[in-house]
Amino acid sequence: MITYFRPSKTIAGFALFANLIGLALLSNPAHALGWPGNNDNWFPSAPAAKPYVDFDGKGFIIDGKRTFIVAGDLHYSRVPRAMWRDRLLRIKRAGYNTIQTYVFWNFHEPKEGVYDFSGDRDLKAYLKLIQSLGMYAIVRVGPYVNAEWDSGGWPVWLRFKPGVSVRDDNKPFYAAMDPWLDHLMPIVASEQINHGGPVILVQLENEDSRGAGTDLPNPYFIHLKDKCVADGLQVPYCFSGTNHGDDPAGDSPLNNAGRTSPWYSTEFWTGWIRFYGDTPDRAAHLTRAT
Asked: What's the pLDDT band for 22 if we cut at 50, 70, 90?
């Protein structure tokens, strides 16, 4: 089995959240539960991006070559811009070749209709810096992201808009969300690998209990997918999350049989903030898992 390991660690002001991204050799359907179930598939590249980034059941193919992706999270919104390069270099020197980041809606649109992508909020500059260091990028665009961030990224003004029902087939919600995506997605799209940038994968939503992978359980999921594609999304993408846990591969035999997408764990972690200390049995389990 070949897997991608991203350990859970906090280093000098940035959170490096654990992740396993797989070239994967896992039976289908995935025996490790996703969020909430077993769909851990990916939507394919658009024809324009397919020569640059593609996949099959054995893994990702970048620029025509099998590529072992080792990804670590560094959220630009949590680190002053002056420290981006230093922190990215630390990750690269630890053996990683890919940076994953959330985009927090309320970080860029604190007031309705007022967008800020400058200074510490300059996502495009961040992606270009990642590329200059010879690394790839995975962008988790939300619009809800959780990530222990205030309101999961939803702007506070959204709470006071009449008739809004978030994560729902709801016109007031779309009226707020769609303009945000119209500002965000062209930035992400312009930095996709087929446009000369570092972005190889995109994640929509985060930990919505109704679906993961390529699930389209309701009109909201369909609307979000279609909107991002209309705004330029061409690289592979999925809904989060897939194969979460402290031992996401489980103990089942691993093989290629039947898989059409790479095995990917959007979150590989060894603990959670509501726990203080662990029982001896769990501590032993986590030691084995890591």
From this structure: very low
